[in-house]
Every structure is written in structure tokens, then in C-alpha cells.
Write a structure and sequence with these properties.
344 residues; alpha/beta; Rossmann fold; six-stranded mixed beta sheet; five-stranded parallel beta sheet; 41% helix
Length: 344
């Protein structure tokens, strides 16, 4: 299990995490800032100059998950993670990656009042040596507006503790009690288990009356996607697509969808690849569109987009798959692809 202590700079995450690791049975402190330090050393300066925060690096987010899973496998027990996450899509990606490894996460937010935050940051600036980079003097205060903006989703998701008048020990004791009693519930972002070999996945393209295609925004990975998912053992791919549409969007298709493309996705570490099938789920009327829902925690949003708009939302290989699926729909015959390209 992971207890993830969130909050902006100056909230007291690290000092509380040190205390909490000693209170929980088999508690281990795991600080993702160490991953950030390693990434800064490993990546070329040109790549680092393209981002203002190492959290914007996909490699950092991936390594945070991989390292957490490795440490838990080594130590067991509970990992206590002090780390600020103010972007919901980054939180979703990291927590979804942990859920894919069947690692439950209890999300705790330390939320002292803004005046106390600013007092703590000012005291830290007075007491700490002058940093080599002058921007570090205002780093924490500059993030307070982002933190206040993020409160709308943070407070709806995390177990919130106002630790403005609490010591780190008192804060840790409250978190430990919330974990023991279940008051700090497991975050409900879910993901299917990480594959151990090639998989078969089925997606379904649904269209509106303007022939725009429906895309969904998953919480557990970056980039938009088609409704669909991995085909289960013994399940027909078309049936898997119908099942996924019902689970993800609350929509029951009244007919089996027709095949548009079969795409062989080659393995690219750490992914295994496999067969990716896209089916034509047909055109949705206004009544069908009005019934669309997001009943589970896997999806953040849905929208109809043109082919051109999809290019800015889908990862490259998924967009190529969509582009050829639309050509197959126009021609009235399915296509076979490899890595998003028709074979000669």
C-alpha cells in the first residue's frame, strides 16, 4: 500500500512523512524527488531545457511508478510518499500506473491556510542558505496560485487535513488513524493489470450526425483514446468492444460492430504490443448521445472530434490507426496495418 501525502510547498509533507513512516507497520519513506534528481543527471541538457518542471517529463512519471513498485516488492509494508501533484492528469497517470500493478493508494492532502503557508515559506527563505538559482527563493510562493486552483479536484479526491496548527508528529498521528480506520479511503482510479505478453485490444468508433468520431480521455494514461479495451480470455473481439462501450459510456450497442482495421503494434519497451482492432459502431442519434455517461473512474471526459482535431489529441500511432480506419469506412472494406501503416 502507498500513502501519498500531497500538498503545495510549505505544507509540511516531508517532515510529516518521516514521522508517519515510523508510525505505520513496516513503513518506508519513498521520496520521488530522488527520481527527479536522477532524471536531471541522466537526460541531456537540451531535453531538460524544454520543461520548467521535471514532473513534465514522461520519464519521471514512469520511473516514479516503476521505482515505487520495485521498492514495495523489496520491502513490503507501506510506502509513505511526500510529493506535490497539482496537475490532475499527472496524478491520474501515476495513480493509474500504480493501480495497474495492484498497488492501492491512499491520497492525503495537507491543507494549511494560505496565510500559514506564506509564513512558513518566508521563514524558510530567511533561515536557509541562499540557493545557487535565484528562482528557488520564490519557487514555493509561485506555486500557491496553482495549488489554490487545484483545490477544486484535490479536496474532492483526497483525505484533507488542516495541519496549520499541528506539529509534524500530530499530523502523522492523524494520518495513521485515518489509514487504520479507513477514513482515508483507497483512491478509486483503476487500471487493468500490466500485460506480461502481447495483447489483443478492441476499440469502437462511434460517430455523430456530422461524422465526427467519439474520443475518450482516460485518467490512467496520457493522451485521448477510442472507447474499448483489452479482449478477455475466450472473448470475441467484437463482443469485447461492445462490452467496453457499455462499461465506459453506459451505451448498449444494438448490433455487432463491423471491422475497420487490424493493426499489429510491435513491442516497444516497456510495452509488449499486440493486435489492435478498430470496429465501426455506427452513427449515434441525439437520443443516444444524450444517454452517454462516464459511470466508472477510468475516464475523465468524452468528445466528438474531426479527423484534424484528433491529430492533436491522439498519440501518433493511435492517430494513424484512426486515419486508416476512416479510409476503410469510406471504401467499405477493412484494412490490415502494421505499426499504423497498411502493408504493401
Amino acid at each position: 500500500m502507498i500513502v501519498w501525502i500531497n500538498g503545495t510547498f510549505g505544507a509540511g509533507k516531508t517532515s510529516t512523512a518521516r514521522e508517519l513512516a515510523g508510525l505505520l507497520p513496516d513503513g518506508t519513506l519513498y521520496d520521488p524527488e530522488l527520481i527527479g534528481d536522477a532524471v536531471r543527471r541522466l537526460l541531456p541538457r537540451k531535453r531538460l531545457a524544454e520543461v520548467s518542471d521535471y514532473q513534465d517529463l514522461p520519464s519521471w512519471r514512469r520511473l516514479v511508478v516503476d521505482a515505487a513498485a520495485a521498492v514495495l516488492a523489496e520491502t513490503g509494508g507501506v510506502l509513505v510518499v511526500p510529493m506535490t501533484l497539482l496537475r490532475q492528469d499527472y496524478r491520474d497517470e501515476i495513480f493509474g500506473g500504480l493501480a495497474a500493478r495492484r498497488i492501492p493508494v491512499r491520497h492525503v492532502l495537507l491543507a494549511p491556510e494560505e496565510t500559514i503557508l506564506r509564513e512558513r515559506l518566508a521563514k524558510r527563505r530567511r533561515e536557509e542558505p541562499e540557493p545557487a538559482d535565484p528562482r528557488d527563493l520564490t519557487w514555493g510562493a509561485d506555486h500557491i496560485p496553482r495549488y489554490l486552483q487545484a483545490l477544486s479536484w484535490l479536496t474532492g479526491d483526497a483525505h484533507v487535513i488542516d495541519n496549520g496548527r499541528l506539529t509534524p508528529r500530530e499530523t502523522a498521528e492523524r494520518i495513521a488513524e485515518a489509514v487504520r480506520t479507513g477514513t482515508a479511503a483507497v483512491c478509486d482510479i483503476v487500471q487493468t493489470p500490466e500485460p506480461t505478453r502481447e495483447t489483443v485490444a478492441a476499440g469502437v468508433l462511434l460517430f455523430d450526425d456530422r461524422d465526427r468520431v467519439l474520443l475518450v480521455d482516460p485518467t490512467y494514461k496520457p493522451g485521448w483514446e477510442f472507447p474499448g479495451g483489452v479482449v478477455e480470455a475466450g472473448e470475441a473481439p467484437a463482443c469485447a468492444g461492445v462490452r467496453e462501450v457499455a462499461e465506459e459510456l453506459g451505451l448498449t450497442l444494438d448490433r455487432a460492430p463491423g471491422l475497420l482495421v487490424v493493426d499489429w503494434e510491435p513491442p516497444r519497451s516497456p510495452a509488449y504490443g499486440g493486435l489492435r482492432l478498430l470496429f465501426d459502431g455506427g452513427r449515434l442519434g441525439a437520443a443516444d448521445t444524450g444517454r452517454l455517461r462516464l459511470p466508472g473512474p477510468e475516464l475523465r471526459a468524452w468528445r466528438f472530434v474531426t479527423e484534424e482535431e484528433a491529430a492533436g489529441l491522439l498519440p501518433r500511432q493511435r492517430y494513424d490507426r484512426l486515419r486508416w480506419a476512416l479510409r476503410a469506412r469510406e471504401r467499405g472494406r477493412p484494412l490490415y496495418l502494421e505499426a499504423g501503416r497498411p502493408t504493401p
